[in-house]
Design brief:
heterodimer, A: alpha/beta, Rossmann fold, 2 domains, 10 helices, 10 strands, about 25% strand, B: mainly alpha, about 0% strand
Chain lengths: ~260, ~325
Amino acid sequence: MTAVPALLTVTGATRRFGGVHALRDVDLDVAPGETHAVIGPNGAGKSTLFKLIGGQLVATAGTIGYDGQRIDRLAPHRRARRGIAIAFQDSPVFGGMTVTENVMVGAHAVTRAGPVAAVLGLPRHRREEAEIRELAARALDRAGLTAWADRPADALPLGQQRALQVARALCGGPRLLLLDEPASGLRGPERSALAGLIEQLRGEGLSILLVEHDVAFVARLADRVTVLDLGRVIARGTFAEIRTDPAVITAYLGGPP
Amino acid sequence: MTERSERHDRVFWSSLFSSRQDGIRWWWIAGALIVSAVPLLLAPGQLTTFVLLGLSAMAVVGLSLLMGYAGQVSLGQASFTAIGAYTSGLLALHHTPPLLALLAAPIVAALAAAGVGVPILRLRGHQLAFATLALQLILLSVLGDADWAGGAVGLQGLPYLSIGGFELDADLDYAYLVLAGVLLVSLIAHRLVRSRVGRGLRALATGETAAEASGVPVGAYRLLVFAVSAAFAGLAGGIYSFFLGYLAPGSFPVLLSIEYVVMAVVGGLGSIGGALLGAALITVVVQLLTTLATQPGMPSYAPSVLSYAVYALLLIAVVLFVPKGIVPTLRRSS
């Protein structure tokens, strides 16, 4: 690797639930502009790691650094303000709101106008609303959702809902995008459309951490792969390197390829 | 006027009468005009009911915001009506100009909500509901024992409210004051919901984790809505104290809090129009029942038994048949 400092650095991350180690002494880093995938069988600790980085869980031990500063004690919304955006797998889109409104929520990370400005209808509030609409329109365009902009979000097909989660994340202008199993539950064409979107973001230089089950998806997108099993890192490297690693083959791929 | 602000004004006015919102906006304007003529047509006794209806509506707009957008149930919302009323009453009796005393009511109520909200908003669902109920019981017993608040007898001999030398000494004056109050809280609620903060609130009502990860400060927003809803109830309480001229802990029973919840649910949570309709509907029904229950030959407990029974029946009927409440259901089907 080059000497460019990593954008995200996870050091010695450990999380216990009662006596069970969900994650044990995990190190991982994401370089600027890199797409880094975390893979592993069910129960490997992928989602625990994901939640530690997003702030939905607190680590039992270890540190998480982002952009040169520790973030492991920050609330999730403060991490969002620093430029970490998340697209969740199992969290639905915001119901009762249109696609555009869903995406506009993502602009929270980069806007400030408070309730008083809104109630009084101050120019500051109106300027910011216009700005948010603009950001949302651009994010929708990047995610290829412009045609759906005024639909109710919960009426979208699953593939579009995933793209909508990504668009919402993009609306806050993130530097690091966390994707939680984006391909799960999607059919072939939806899956390759989403892979195309992620590829495009990667081409634009966005740093991406991808937690994924689907090996073909990871092979297509990831610069580097970290493999977890039973809460530990068992291999790391390019996809070509880890796919021939004997430990990975036994733990995850289930046999020689 | 600069060119930019002229253009801005055009945009503003055209948005006020924009095509999609046209229907709803005209409904609002027509409704406001009709309702503002109503006090002139009412008999004195009905005027009192009208004022009490308006005061409930103010509290219910806030509660509907709290329940519909922040997903919090408060069974003690009348605590804030009481806090507002006692704030105005005590200040007015201690020679504060009545208008200032009235303005203090929503502020003190909001501060009280912000104070108790920090610990109790950590609770969810029915635990929060019980905590707010407990708060009201505590408040009522404190007020009942406090000498400075007049104990169980309460406060008496409050002056009339006066605004800029005009003394509001007739029921009709208070009817219009209450109408202005309803309009004010509706406007505030409307603008809040349409803003960035409102989008954050709507988002957190359906997906708290995703909202927080998008940068929405979930805890702060919950507290904000709780404080705003308390301010609305507090303002209603302040007007109430000047309207009646006396206050007692018994004016703010737990039944009043339950009445607010029934009004909000029947009208439709998270809908300002629903809050207003719910308040109107329940007030009229209760008024009819009270008339019925105080007929000669009825037992002395008839009024309270009837009102409890009717709240329960209405709540069950609405949850079974129009779970979203009347106004959102009508809007969806139209």
